[in-house]
Amino acid sequence: MTNDLLWQLPATELARRFRDGSLTPLDAARASLARLEAVNPALNAVVLRRDADCLREAEASTRRFAAGQPLSAIDGIPLTVKDSLYTADLPTSWGCRALAARGTGEDEFAVGRARAGGALILGKTNVPEFALEGYTDNPVYGPTGNPWNTELTPGGSSGGAVAAVAAGIGPLAIAQDGGGSIRRPVSHTGLVGLKPSLSAVPRQHVLPTLLLDFEIIGPIARTVADTRLLFGVMRGPAAVDRLSLAAAHAASLPRPGGPLRVLYVERLGDAPLDPQIAASVSGGVAQLAALGHHVETGALPLDLGFFATAWPRIGQMGLASMFDQHPDWEAQASQKYRDMAALGRALPATLLWQTMERVWQLRRETAALFERFDVIVMPSAAALPWPKREAFPPRIDGQDVGPRGHAIYTGWVNAAGLPALAVPTAPSAEGLPIGMQMVGAYGSDDMLLDLGAAFEAVAPWAHRWPSLA
Predict the structure, then answer these.
(1) Can you give the three-state secondary structure of 63-124, one letter per residue?
(2) Number of domains into which the chain is organized
(3) How confident is the model at residue 3 (pLDDT cuts 50, 70, 90)?
(4) Domain span at residue 197?
(5) Which of helix, strand or coil describes residue 462?
(6) This prediction's pTM
(7) Is 463 inside a domain boundary?
(8) Which among 33, 289, 299, 332 is placed 20 to 30 Å from 349, CA to CA?
(9) Which residues does residue 174 pair with via DSSP β-bridges, in sequence order?
(10) Who's near 441: CB < 8 A, 6+ residues apart?
């Protein structure tokens, strides 16, 4: 492979070549920065850059490999960080005017682990304002385009993260999933994304939470092996997040080693689903069955009706609380978020308590569900990518839908605290990516990665590159 195509190498291959001396982290950093310079103007994926620091760190990583002393499995690997996560040396704008130049001097815990492991942070990736939307546009940096069609959205809120990886800017991205913000965007861009179990990746030094404890840090990559590589560095218990101790215990429990019991849920109730997505995911499920797993098709045996109405209210209450603490942020926020906060202020405190009780009930019910099944498979998103300046697709399969119509498959997983791995399936007739998510019991992250790797071996996707490439 010529040096001008080094940006196509997966992180696992970069790490192997660093170890055998056929490539250096400085080579990889230069290739990623050149790729960033070439394609980012068409995408607007990376909104803050640290080129000089990245090159200096790549030189230090190169010296460590020469001495046989890499810091971790991702030492020298270029990656990006979502602009809703604190980085010590860059502002974290969260897509809003009030924070555009605000730095904290701290790393989000997972970012700090990656940095301590020698990862080369290229920069920050774009998000919607307050990371509350399923597309990526904001008044600070504008919209992000999808590498498969730059006039379409890559989804959100991790839209900049997936656009950067899909376009080859960096093989890895650290992102955040509060209701599907990793899984839906990877399905729109042909990537792999893991939403880990609650607190499998500890949290510290964070922006105000808007979605209770639903917001989880996870990896995005082109392959399952790369996803596992980054997850391995970010995960693990830490005293700063006591729930991470429970997550570590759950991860240590024995998991099924033979054929898995799979429940395939094609759709939720009568909510519309794009027919091409239905066909693609059905084909993916057939491949799981061909691998020897026991597949049952049926409805999701959970009552999610409460969350259909509660979900927007959770964000409204979260915004109201945050703006009460930071009135200057509210003054500079877009009108739609000020309106949302006003609605949140009008909601009774009893609703928040009822919501929490339903969350706890859902977590108990899913624990019982995973005594019957090992994996639940469903689409990652209900719609194909739509125009990048539109917040959501107004119609799916000929039916009118609201803001969450495309996103109905993912939020319940966050509320339940479960892990979910999203992987590509066959693309649409137009060549647009499609994905399915595999949901497991709390702590079964490694089992899902194993299943994803087996699926990838029979239905590979990493050879597909967008036309931008």
Answers:
(1) HHHHCCCCCCCCCCCEEEEECCCCECCECCCCCCHHHCCCCCCCCCHHHHHHHHCCCEEEEE
(2) 1
(3) low
(4) 8-458
(5) coil
(6) 0.98
(7) no
(8) 332
(9) 81, 219
(10) 366, 367, 370, 374, 418
